Amino acid sequence: MFPDTLNNTIWTLRNALKKNKVPIWKAVIKELSRSRSNRTEVNIGQLAHVTKDKEVVIVPGKILGSGEISHKLTIWCFNISEAATRKIIDAGGKILALDSLVKKYPDGKGVRIIG
Predict the structure, then answer these.
(1) pTM score of the predicted model
(2) Residue among 106, 88, 90 nearest 98 (CA)
(3) Which domains does the chain have, with CATH numbers?
């Protein structure tokens, strides 16, 4: 992703942290602040294995399309492949924009960080 996108993402998360004082946003900032080569990459198959139906998940890295998923997830990730997007949507899941995630879950309750 472009540096401006990363800076905007971190800025949005910092605002959420200041407003809500919730540690989950600080943890996501820390993960995104790593160098790009050290950021998390998670396959759809791994997500399917470690999540349950209708869970809300943050992946502070990239989701790749390898594997299958059969349950609904609500996801925010920094980057996602086209194949992964298609598989999540086909399974009935949603991919949220960061602003939507912060508005819907300002306290971070029920949201898991994977990766």
Answers:
(1) 0.91
(2) 106
(3) 3-113 (3.100.10.10)
Torsion angle of alpha carbons 86, 31, 19, 105, nearest 10°? 30
Alpha carbon 34 to chain centroid distance?
Answer: 15
- The two tokens of residue 66 are 């390898």
Instruction: List the structure tokens of 95.
Output: 């991919």
Type of residue found at 97: A
Alpha carbon distance 51, 45 (integer Å): 10
Contact call for residues 95 and 82 (beta carbons, < 8 A): no
Q: What is the pLDDT of residues 22-32, one digit of tens each?
A: 999 999 999 99
